[in-house]
Design brief:
This protein is α/β, with parallel strands linked by helices. The chain has eleven helices and 13 strands. α3 packs across α4, α4 packs parallel to α5 and α10 crosses α11. The two termini are about 15 Å apart.
Length: about 350
């Protein structure tokens, strides 16, 4: 199975995302296009495009970027509470057809400013039940005609999506990524997702979750191709190990000065976020170069743990995840504009070497 390497485009109108000191261009098509074209130029398969209410609409941005690139795959983050499944299935199939199969989709169940766009479902268990039903219906709409569906959350009658996704006549549909560490989230992944994305946990935690998800897939009678696994993490890469750790510690010191304890507490509510924050109690550095200290200062998500080191250090750390079965990697660091080139040039070449690992 070939490996996939994606970058991250923050997709926000406000500067300063994760300490990026770029002062202009945020929220403009020119800035996002520059990042997408840089991804193509420096070996990345595409990029995850961030989402959230009050930010540019992710699907609109992805469509514009697909029109301005040739190989770039947008991994579009979307929320079932924001989209109706038939509307989404049609929009996604259209973009996938127009881009000749370049669309990737990241399904997000976590709470956003749901009341602002009319999502009244706040109970976590119900939200995951709704996500599973959403995925079931979207898959049917991509692959069947005249779909009638009556579920607990969604209903359609005589629904046919046109055009179909690119390659639908051969059974292909856009790949569905999904995250989440709770028991309810893992049941959604095991049954309906194509790729389970993990945050940057230590190797033992990832191995445990892969084993559990494989067993869960079997027990639930999964009907799709086997579940694949991915890693979303910050990678701080410098020419030498010493330089990388010096810069990492300086970044954390700056984060500590700006830290908002309230934000940090809010981010710990999700099971996956709590798992990340708890890692700091095990030590500042886990495995070979997994840095946990950023999570003490409200990093959140991929900013909570970092892989730090030289290109060889970080490449070997990622190979170790690969040996567990991780085949999809979504990496990033700031400033996005410069690091997309540095990490692409220095790290990806090593990861694509065919040396035994």
């Amino acid at each position: 199975m070939s490996e996939e390497f994606l970058w991250y485009i923050p997709n926000t109108v406000e500067p300063g995302h994760r300490g990026d000191d770029t002062s202009t261009g945020w929220g403009t098509l020119d800035f996002s296009t520059e990042l997408a074209l840089a991804a193509e130029a420096h070996g990345w398969g595409g990029a995850l495009i961030g989402t959230g209410w009050g930010r540019p609409d992710t699907f609109t941005v992805a469509t514009a970027l697909a029109a301005r690139t040739t190989t770039f795959q947008p991994l579009v983050a979307i929320r079932p509470g924001y989209w109706q499944p038939a509307h989404f299935a049609s929009s996604a199939a259209t973009l996938d057809r127009l881009s000749e199969g370049r669309l990737l989709i990241n399904i997000v169940s976590g709470l956003d400013d749901a009341a602002a766009y009319g999502d009244g479902e706040v109970d976590p268990a119900r939200r995951y039940d709704r996500t599973r039903e959403f995925l079931q219906l979207v898959r049917r709409l991509w692959t069947e005609q005249d779909v009638t569906f009556k579920g607990d959350f969604f209903q359609v009658e005589g629904s046919t999506v046109s055009p179909r996704p690119h390659g639908a006549e051969h059974g292909r549909t856009p790949r569905l990524y999904f995250g989440g560490a709770s028991a309810a989230a893992e049941r959604v992944s095991a049954a309906e997702a194509d790729v389970q994305l993990f945050w940057g946990e230590p190797l033992d935690g990832v191995a445990e979750r892969i084993d559990r998800l494989k067993a869960l897939s079997a027990s639930l009678g999964r009907e799709h191709a086997p579940l694949e696994f991915g890693l979303r993490i910050t990678t701080l890469v410098r020419d030498t190990t010493e330089e990388a750790w010096r810069d990492a510690e300086a970044k954390v010191a700056s984060m500590a000065e700006r830290a908002d304890p309230t934000i940090t507490r809010e981010r710990r509510r999700a099971v996956g976020q709590q798992r990340l924050h708890d890692l700091a109690e095990r030590g500042e550095v886990l495995d070979s170069c997994l840095y946990t200290t950023p999570g003490r200062f409200g990093g959140g998500g991929a900013g909570t743990t970092w892989l730090v080191g030289s290109p060889d250090d970080v490449a070997e750390a990622l190979r170790a995840y690969g040996r567990l079965g991780i085949t999809h990697f979504v990496l990033s660091d700031t400033p996005y504009r410069s690091e997309i080139a540095r990490i692409g040039d220095q790290l990806l070449s090593r990861l694509r070497e065919r040396n035994p690992v």
